[in-house]
Amino acid sequence: MFKPLVFYIGLRYTRAKRRTQFISFITLTSVLGIALGVTALITVLSVMNGFEAELRERILGMTAHATATGRSGQLDDWQALDQKLKNYPHVEGAAPFISGQVMINADRRVSGTMLNGILPDYESRVSDVANKMKLGQLADLVPGEYGIVLGGELANYLGVTLSDKITVISPQINSTPAGIVPRMRRFTVVGIFQVGMYEYDRNMALIHIDDAAKLFRMDNAVSGLRIKLDDLFNAPKITHGLATALYDEYQVSDWTLAHNNFFKAIQTEKRVMFIILLLIVAVAAFNIVSTLVMVVTDKRGDIAILKTQGLTSASIMGIFMVLGSIIGIVGTALGTVGGVLLALNVETIVPAIEKLFQVQFMAADVYYISELPSKLVWSDVYAIAGMAFFLSLLATIYPAWQASRINPAEVLRYE
Q1: Where are the alpha helices (DSSP H) in 358-377?
Q2: Do the beta carbons of residue 13 and residue 319 sit within 8 Å?
Q3: What is the C-alpha separation between 180 and 272, in angstroms, rounded?
Q4: CA–CA dist 271, 265 (Å, integer)
Q5: pTM for this prediction
Q6: Those residues with Cβ within 8 angstroms of residue 338's Cβ, 6 or more apart along the chain or in another chain
Q7: Cα separation of 208 and 306, whole Å?
Q8: pLDDT tens for each residue of 45-72
Q9: pLDDT digit string, tens, across residues 234-273
Q10: Phi, psi (deg, nearest 5) at residue 118
Q11: Spatial distance between the Cα atoms of 64 and 94, rounded to a whole number of angstroms
């Protein structure tokens, strides 16, 4: 079916004569259609892979891989649990925290905020916030001095910077002769962090854990321990084993419980986008059908002569499959090269377009991050290229089969 003569004739038919230039134009559009579809598919999946990886890195850079707390919802002796965790092989570090919702007031602006009490020396074991400081440093959080570190977007909203005073209003209440009033405390801004994720930069503030204990009336207790694991993707299994090792004395949860639906939604969206863009490739690939049908119609005389000279129906079918496969190979190759180059340079091209047209494609308050990341996964590239070529080859079967059924006697009768 695929003898050297078959390949030669198939390649010969790719070169158009003057009277068949319209067929060549249709062939070119088929090639470009496949190339554009493959380019779009590789680029979009790379951007979605990058978006997912960037979100995971930023979320888990600020939140714990796992969290342990007491059965009552707080830990009265976190040091004892910390010592136990040091003996567990999959735990790389742990840090105590006190967490609560507060209102922050600066001048005439008020914002609801998640306030976390931390130990600066321990915090670097479980999060990257120490490396994301824009102004000041975590070590400036000194117990008793009531310093506070704000997210960059929160500081901008409140209009404050280093050394400015703000008021933190706790949901805890005080009974006074004047009535019941909320607990309030003046804090001094000693640092500003910028992790690049709007949710944290806009809605998080950090204080020393001793100050948080006084503000929330926790005495010597803490909300729990944040735990960093050696394999975050195996967190459910590790936390289950950890809970067993601790004899179920503590409540242990992992990051997948808090963010599982979010990352599942991203995976679902990626699959849907793959299917949608693959349909575009399929439409372009099946343009090969119309191209080959016109070529078969144009070459009916040639087919009849080749058959009378001894070429079999299988070889005739092979000629047109070779022709269609060349269209698919060229389109897939061009699309793969274009998609890889575009995916590798998205982070440079998109900012240039935004600057040129004065637009912003991704608002940070809507998409969590404002940059358009890209992560090229070669297994995706191979799968896309293979699928595009398979669809192109599939589109050649019917026209090639029709060509193989041509009766030389009926064609040559009118020649």
Answers
A1: 364-367
A2: yes
A3: 54
A4: 10
A5: 0.69
A6: 35, 38, 39
A7: 88
A8: 888 888 888 777 777 777 788 888 887 7
A9: 888 888 888 888 777 788 888 877 777 777 777 788 888 8
A10: -135, 165
A11: 9
Distance CA 205, CA 228 (A): 21
> Tokens standing for 46?
């790379």
Length of the chain equals 415
The vertex-169 CA angle with 166 and 171, nearest 5°, equals: 165
Q: With beta carbons less than 8 A apart as the criterion, state whether 254 and 68 touch.
A: no
AA letter at 402: Q
Q: What is the 3-state secondary structure (H, E, C) of 195-216?
A: CCCHHHHHHEEEEEHHHHHHHC
Closest CA to 46 of 385, 384, 373: 373
- The token pair that represents 391 in the structure block: 């669809």
Alpha-carbon distances of 152 from 138, 203, 304, rounded to whole Å = 14, 10, 76
Helices (H) and strands (E) in the chain, counts: 15, 10
Contact call for residues 396 and 288 (beta carbons, < 8 A): yes
Token look-up 């699928």 returns 387
Beta bridge partners of 259: none
Hunting for tokens 């010597």 — which residue is that? 220
Q: Token digits for 108?
A: 């005439």
> CA angle 105-107-112, nearest 5°?
20
How many Cβ atoms are within 10 Å of 8's Cβ, its own excluded? 12
Decide if 386 contacts 279 (C-beta within 8 A). Answer: no
